[in-house]
Amino acid sequence: MDDFYMGLTSITPPDGSALYKGNATFTSALSLDGSGLRGAGEIDFLTAHVDGGDLVFLPDSIIGPLTAFENQQSTDSDVPYAKTTSGYIHFDPHGERLEVTTQRNAVGLYDGEGELSGTLALDATGLYGVGYLDLA
Fold first, then answer.
1. Closest listed residue to residue 108, CA positions, set 134, 74, 84, 92
2. Which of 22, 28, 73, 118 would be a feasible disulfide site paired with 18, CB 3.0-4.6 Å?
3. How far apart (Å, rounded) are the C-alpha atoms in residues 49 and 115?
4. What predicted TM-score, i.e. pTM, was given to this entire model?
5. What is the pLDDT along the chain (136 residues), one digit of tens a residue?
6. Which residues of 66-80 are buried (b: 16+ CB within 10 A; e: fewer)?
């Protein structure tokens, strides 16, 4: 480390570590140094799974670029299947909400029947979107 800060790195257990008050889990490596608390790994929240290589853990949220996002369809919570391989996340654990904003690739919805360019938001009441929806 060239920043002259003492730092540490921690690896989560294989089944992950609870985030904030336990409404999500993070799996992989966390590091703390002069650039803050960062992680490269996986977040699981409700029906969603996010992979990110440079996630920033803030006191009230997690932000950063994603390398994969996949939401499993659920009839219980009335959410469709959704998937993308790039974008940006904002996870608000206190509001129990995960937002995914597209960058290069749209989010594929309903097993490829539609695409959304914009922002998806997942919470306990469902999956919502704002942006351009293209139904094939």
1. 84
2. 22
3. 18
4. 0.88
5. 465 777 888 888 888 888 887 889 889 888 888 888 899 999 999 999 999 989 999 999 999 999 999 999 987 878 899 999 999 999 999 999 999 999 989 999 988 889 999 999 999 899 999 999 998 7
6. beebebeeeeeeebb
Residue 5 identity: Y
Query: What's the token pair of residue 29?
Result: 């490596």
Residue with tokens 């097993």: 111
HEC sequence for the chain: CCCCCCCEEEECCCCCEEECCCCEEEEEEEEEECCEEEEEEEEEECCEEEEEEEEEECCCCEEEEECEEEECCECCCCECCEEECCEEEEEECCCCEEEEECCCCCEEECCCCEEEEEEEEEECCEEEEEEEEEEC
Residues 6+ apart with CB under 8 A from 28: 11, 12, 39, 40, 41, 42
Q: In the block, which residue shows the tokens 């994969």?
A: 68
